[in-house]
acetate--CoA ligase
Amino acid sequence: MKVVADTIAPKTGQANMPDYDTARADFSWEEVEKSFSWHETGKVNMAHEAIDRHAETWRRNKVALYYSDDERDEKYTFQDMKFLSNKFGNVLRSIGTEKGDRVFLFLSRSPELYTSLLGTLKIGAITGPLFEAFMEQAVRDRLENSEASVLITSPSLIDRVPYNELPHLENIILVGDGDAPEDGDVKFFRYEQEMEKNSRDLNIEWVDREDGMILHYTSGSTGKPKGVLHVHNAMIQQYQTAKWIMDLKEDDIYWCTADPGWVTGTSYGIFGPWLNGVSNLVRGGRFSPEDWYGTIEKYQVSVWLSAPTAFRKLMGAGDEAVKKFDLSSLRHVLSVGEPLNAEVIHWGMDVYNRRIHDHWWMTETGGVIIANYPAMPMKPGSMGKPFPGVEAAILDEEGNELPPGQMGKLCIKSGWPSMLRTVWNNEERFKKYFPFEGWFDSDDLASRDEDGYFWFEGRDDDVITTSGERVGPFEVESKLVEHPSVAEAAVIGKPDPVRGHIIKAFVALKDGYTRSDELEQELSSFVKKGLAAHAAPREMEIRDFLPKTRSGKIMRRVLKAWELDEPAGDLSTMEK
Ligand code: WTA
């Protein structure tokens, strides 16, 4: 366990959430449900609660979405968002889409991404947002597994969609100008034309709170990415955590820097803020310190949620960059996705005069589980304490709770409102999340201290978090062995001061091939072009053989130990 650092006291008298112990003592999810009228009527739909509900009040003229990138600078009220998403719901119905169908999005950040996602939910279909940097294999795996019938994409991305080889895909809706195919084994539509044709009034599909809402694909240590299914009921947790952890208030301008292709970009880039009726800023384009600080200044951002990699890059850009901008609008700053070093928090106190609030959760949990709260003293380096309505514990290999100070499996008492409901088409994998009766196993290792604060210790599996993005080693290895020169490949995460981890690949070549810098570069770009840039190995080592168990499984843990100069542990099963 890490040394317990000094605590940083909260600013007093401002937060939505009362002090931690009081909040925990009185907490009930049933009370939170009463914030929504469906508690009485039984009729629920996330898009209604996030948008339409506000469009029926004085908030109709309040800005819901500020959108900007290098070319666009636009704002949309709650009423605009209601009408646009209604229209899109009608577009989908007009091409025969029904409740429960999977409607996937493969688009760069744009207002159209947000309105079509909401329109999809309005007709009771299940949305599946894909990260725009995905290449063909990544897109194919997800569309194949989900059996999506509709894809919303753009002419610039259509080359990466193998639409003639996806039997379930029936319709493609193209957003924006540009040449694109017009026929094939699917029907093509143009977003602008279809929106023009359809009405802004829609009969919303009321669904059951347990009906499917969103599929996020995420990586594990083996196999293809898994489709984690969340249901409309997740709103209870997303609403309450956004209110208490992001501390959202009526006049806030909230900026979550995550893309909706990742769970943070939907749970807290769409649902959390809009369930609370708050103005939400989306900034497209690429990261640069000047651009980000300029964005905060221009839009007067008051609540800012980002990731450790971004904060480390901002720290690396130096304090001068901060001084050029007026960041006085910032009230609350948050970080998620990987460990936030205490050093970064101390730097944040120096330059922003704000605490950066680390919190922990994962795709499977749908909402935040452990957090540093605005009104709670912070121990830099700790993830904080479990959300008032949630129980988390550190368990040993047999599922027994460990005492404070000991490292073990970070597990959550099953049944929190935004818990995943299944793994799409893979009930067996879903069951594996629950190795001990009543507990979900996160596959993270952590410890808890005497004061109840949780400390992250590492992953319990081979999953790599690089620049805050989760990468499964198996996907990268599978891609590498598709290359004609590669006999075998193994991939590990190697610690890196900025990115948290980078991907390092160990490769054994087929007979007739020899190592060269060109070949290493070619292999890396092969992964980049096939999967995604963030999945490409930044380091590569070509070896004569890879360590294997006698049953033929490549031992990633041994490669990692060798790489880090650490003891390799039990080698008894290793093939000699
Ligand atoms: C890691 C992102 C340390 C962890 C919301 C988890 C963290 C995985 C933290 C989930 C944190 C997330 N400190 N590690 N505050 N937050 N992680 O599914 O290993 O993309 O299991 O969800 O990121 O990543 P995912």
Q: What stands out?
A: Residues 449 and 491 are 33 Å apart (CA to CA). The longest strand covers residues 486-496. The chain has a mean pLDDT of 94.
